[in-house]
Amino acid sequence: MYDYGKLVYLDLQKTGSRFVVDFLESTCKLSLRSGDEHTFVREDYDPDTYYFITVRHPETQYSSLYRYGLGGKKGFVYRSIINSGRKDLYDAENPRFNDWLEFVLDEKNIDCLGEGYEKISPSLDLGFMSFRYLCYATLHPFRLLEIFQRNKGCLTHVNKTSIVDYVIKMEDLNGSLLDFATVIKPEFFSQDSVYEFLKSQERINVSAVKHSEIGEVSQKNKEKIHQKESLLLQFYKN
């Protein structure tokens, strides 16, 4: 979370957040109060503040998470899966993306993903990427999860309690940031700096392993992702 007082950026993982953070540092006219990577808004919520978040299609989020482990950075999920005895899923010479996807989408392996995801009931059938979004978009995600167990209508409950005022999709990150800073909330940004940054800045923090090197998501896994990730897929209906 990056708190600029009247503007707060919710930096959901694997959604171009590093690029957005640099964009804000270079263009926002407000002073940064605090910036803690991948943290949530809780008791410090201010209803007068404008909250925005970046999202990404869950298929490519899973791809990014897999490639993060397959490359040099590794991370918690990589270590957990290796420790579970499935080192074979991270063979850089022979990537097994769809086998890895089947593993992480299987409720029996929920403990390998961390971040509190292991606390949710498998009966909710909530995907890891949607769980991550839930943690950023709401003040009391685990209370909501209890409601989900008693009532249907996950999307309705989340959207009613969401603190998010604006959603930017990573798939059009530059164009969406331009609209956000020049049309939606121009009062918070130096307009010349916005154009200068987006014209000159190249994307950063790009994975060393490209998506094309690990193959496409299988139809079976696509169906499972669409079943489990409805919370995120609401932004990709068109």
Major β-sheet, in short?
5 strands, mixed
The helix tally amounts to 11
For the secondary structure, the number of strands is 5
Q: In sequence order, what are the helices and strands, one letter per element?
A: EEHEEHHHHHHEHHHH
Report the end-to-end length measured between terminal Cα atoms. 28 Å
Low-confidence spans: pLDDT under 50, at least 5 residues? none
What is the helical fraction, as a range of percent?
A: 40-55%
The outline comes out as globular
Descriptive labels:
8% strand, alpha/beta, single chain, 238 residues
Description:
The chain has helices at residues 17-27, 58-70, 76-83, 97-105, 128-137, 141-150, 154-161, 173-184, 191-200, 219-228, 230-233; strands spanning 2-3, 7-10, 34-35, 50-55, 166-169. Strands 3-1-2-4-5 form a 5-stranded mixed beta sheet. Helix content is 44%, strand content 8%. By secondary structure, it is an alpha/beta fold. The model has no long low-confidence stretch (mean pLDDT 91). The longest helix is centred in the N-terminal third of the chain and has 13 residues, at 58-70. It is built from 11 helices and 5 strands.
